[in-house]
Amino acid sequence: MDRTAWIAVTLCVLGLFAWQIWNSRQAAPRPAVATTPSPTVPGVSATPAASVTATVAPQPAVAATAAPSATPLPFAERTETLRNSDVELHFTNRGGGIDQAILPNYAAEHGESVTLNSPARLPIGAVIDDPAAPLLPEYSIARDANTVTLEYVTPEQVTIRKKFSFATTNEKKENFIANLDIDFVNGGAQPYANPGYFFAVGSAVPGHANDYPSYTRLVWLTGGGTKGIDVGWFAEGGGFLGMGQHPARPFYTQNVNSAEWVAASSQFFTSLVVPLTGKADAVWGKRFDIDPARKTYGLEGAMHLPGFRVEAGQTYTAHFQLYLGPKLYHRLAQLDHNEADVMEFGVFKIICQALLNILNTLHSFLGNYAAAILALTTIVKLSLWPLQTKATSSMRRMSALSPKIQELREKYKDDPTRMNQEVMKLYKEYGINPVGGCLPMLIQIPIFFGLFTMLRQAVELRGASFLWIKDLSQPDTIGHLPILGWPINVLPLIMAATSFWMTHLTPKSGDPTQQRMMMFMPIIFIVFCYNFAAALALYYTAQNLFSILQLYQNRKQPMPTLEKLPKRVRR
Fold first, then answer.
1. Can you give the residue ranges of every domain in the chain?
2. Could you give phi then psi for residue 490, rounded to 5 degrees?
3. pTM > 0.90
4. For the structural domain made of 77-344, what CATH number should be given?
5. What are phi and psi of 434, to 5 degrees?
6. 12-40: per-residue pLDDT in tens?
7. Is the model more confident about 288 or about 433?
8. Cα–Cα dist 64/290, whole Å
């Protein structure tokens, strides 16, 4: 390698180390910040995101075990439960909502069932004026066979009556969905005008100790696309070269344009609320400390809904649909309000959908997700096999042309423009496409990033094992380096080794830029994959082995001969 190549390799390695350091710092303790309760704002004019830090005050952090209200409850808490085969909903009279949604078919990191929301956070379905300083009054609570009813009478003699029930249209499809009807019954003598209210959508916490902060998010759908923030948004920002610095931000509140739903989302699970009567016009979120020892963070959120007017003796009813469960794309995609967009597949949406559907179809036949990934790799590789063979042939022809190209480089070394013109002319004379060898790689890049995006939230892979890998949705860490504490992930290292092996076997073209790109690709991919799901490294390692097999097969073919094309063909 020349000096430039060595410099580039060194920078890539340093980039990998910087990536590891940054990841470790993301999990490092940061001082938590509490806020001075903000006053209730009738009708809420949401504060822009850039200015929400004005009310920060140095108060003690709120631990996960503390209730969100500032004072102890003046009443005894009572609970009721609704359950089906997929979810168990625990209701509380504290604010009248769901304080826990337990998923008995999904095990958490330490063996207990996955739980959405917490008694320490705002109950899902709580109706509040100001989520930064919530008042959670005592509701009466009652249950019949399939419904839990909670009721509270306001000082204005308005009865707020909430009825929670499971959807029953299609039991299998709807098990993670609960319906909520809220009646506002005006029992007073005067009309009642509500200026708007917040509706708590629940909280999300990391599922694993090594989760990226970007996995714990508040997400909403507006204008046909999703927007959101993660727990990292609230952290203190050091800026760049002194620019963009900001203190830790206590909460997020923002006007939105007719949001169809709002969700508190972790890597694999979500509590998602669809307002069916009217769309949300603002969102609110707050980060909270869930482990004082490790300083890991959760995020809770709420949506703001427009006001309404109720005449004396009349009733206004608001309807909501709640999805409380795993982010199973095939189930979310069957719902009516684009709930599947909570997956946030982005620009790779079509590729992610196709790959996930193929993966699940293969799993239905093979019964093992590792086998399904290997089968998917085989399908992708066989589909690209003819193209890869043609690209390898093109690279071998360019390798045979290298002496002529080198002569031109020496001849016109003082005239780069003329040199490039002559090199391109030489390619044209022999009918060689200088980027032909890169085409299979360019096709695989969208597939790679589609897998990267899809596997990031594919709950189907959660807990799936393969050989030494305990969980395909997590890195295959077998230990940590002494002193530094960096994880030792085996499969990405095997992937990098097979990538370098494949680069060594690939015919060297006459284009130094292309050679360097091929050489740097293994380093680039290990940076992407090192702390990511083992499933992605498994896919790419298997693909590399297929490519190596194909390269060995192509090397057995006779070396191509160089022949100039007839002039009429060159045109």
1. 77-344, 363-555
2. -75, -50
3. no
4. 2.70.98.90
5. -65, -20
6. 555 555 544 444 444 333 333 333 333 33
7. 288
8. 5
